[in-house]
């Protein structure tokens, strides 16, 4: 099977989410990866839970995610017919490499409306590699705020 990345910008966001909505029930495993600006404060490896959360909160509140990648597959690892992965690029991405494409970047609030539809009414299983920041940024997108206070 050909593996391809579907690049998603503002002008094809709805079309690509329509494809995702069609495959999410049969391919309900989702690999998630976020790209973001360098962290402000690195958290020590041996940090306790409170310190890790404090660093996560500080970094997410003061840095912007730039890209999100989603790859859907079924319980056997099969990829959907429509491609293997979607790469979403967001406004505020300040790399010189993409300067000409910034006008096509996605508004995170618009992305959130589609993302909320994608995750509702369907049991998705998420896969990440060291997903603390991945889920932190997804929470930020879905709630339009920084992470909530530390759970008790």
From TrEMBL:
Q: Does the keyword Glycoprotein apply?
A: no
> What GO cellular-component annotations does this UniProt entry give?
CCR4-NOT complex; cytoplasm; nucleus
Grouped into one coarse class, the protein's main location is: cytoplasm
Does this entry carry the keyword Disulfide bond?
Answer: no
Q: Which GO terms describe its molecular function?
A: metal ion binding; poly(A)-specific ribonuclease activity; RNA binding
Its Enzyme Commission number?
Answer: 3.1.13.4
> Which keywords describe this protein according to UniProt?
Cytoplasm, Exonuclease, Hydrolase, Metal-binding, Nuclease, Nucleus, RNA-binding, Transcription, Transcription regulation
Its needed co-factors are: a divalent metal cation
The family database entries (Pfam families) matched by this protein are listed as: CAF1
| Swiss-Prot/TrEMBL catalytic activity | Exonucleolytic cleavage of poly(A) to 5'-AMP
The subcellular localization recorded is: Cytoplasm; Nucleus
Which top-level enzyme class is recorded in the Swiss-Prot or TrEMBL entry?
Answer: hydrolase
Hey, which family's this protein in? Answer: Belongs to the CAF1 family.
Q: Which PANTHER family match?
A: CCR4-NOT TRANSCRIPTION COMPLEX SUBUNIT
**Function, please?**
Ubiquitous transcription factor required for a diverse set of processes. It is a component of the CCR4 complex involved in the control of gene expression.
Subunit record text: Component of the CCR4-NOT complex, at least composed of CRR4 and CAF1 proteins.
Q: What is this protein called?
A: poly(A)-specific ribonuclease
Its taxonomic path starts at: Eukaryota, Viridiplantae, Streptophyta, Embryophyta, Tracheophyta
């Amino acid at each position: 099977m050909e593996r391809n990345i579907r690049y998603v910008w503002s002008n094809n966001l709805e079309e690509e989410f329509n494809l995702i909505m069609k495959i999410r029930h049969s391919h309900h495993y989702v690999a998630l990866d976020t790209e973001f600006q360098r962290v402000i404060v690195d958290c020590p490896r041996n940090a306790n839970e409170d310190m890790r959360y404090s660093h996560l909160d500080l970094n997410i509140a003061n840095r912007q995610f730039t890209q999100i990648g989603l790859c859907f597959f079924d319980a056997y690892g099969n990829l959907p017919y429509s491609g293997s992965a979607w790469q979403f690029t967001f406004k505020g991405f300040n790399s010189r490499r993409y300067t000409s494409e910034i006008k096509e970047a996605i508004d995170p609030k618009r992305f959130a409306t589609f993302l909320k539809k994608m995750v509702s009414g369907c049991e998705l299983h998420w896969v990440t590699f060291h997903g603390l920041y991945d889920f932190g940024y997804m929470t930020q997108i879905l709630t339009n705020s920084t992470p909530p206070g530390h759970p008790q």
